[in-house]
Amino acid sequence: MCVVEGDFxxxxxxxxxxxxxxxxxxxAVFESGPIRDFVQHxxxxxxxxxxxGSRCGEAQALWKSERLRSRIAELRAEFSYVLIDGPPxxxxxxxxxxxxxxxxxxxxxxxxxxxxxxxxxxxxNLAAANVKLLGAVLNNRTFSIPESLCRKL
Length: 153
Description:
Elements: E1 2-5, H1 13-17, H2 25-30, E2 40-41, E3 48-50, H3 59-62, H4 66-78, E4 82-85, H5 94-101, E5 105-110, H6 116-128, E6 133-139, H7 147-152
């Protein structure tokens, strides 16, 4: 499995996994060589990471290039599963463009932050762009326990 940083606006996946962000997806698009040369394998795990890379400032040129689609296809051939972490769909068109290259999109909705109307609009925009919505995850949902039950615990 390979996890790919697709948020070129504020890349952070490399920090989460503790890998370098020197060579990543943006570098792979602008440079030659097999895609595996840009992927970092996590020791002791069956997980690899492709960070955003050092050329995020040139990311606008990525969307006009067929090379990004080609690199995503290489990843799909190299790994059984490719998970791309994209930017917020309601803020950046990049997420929709990445969704068009993928098998589908899973929306991550923040409880008590994401408004129902925003989620509906995002869903409609993805459908209009022919992006398959695979599902949604409601993040950070809290359930209050009534005091009478809490005393029994």
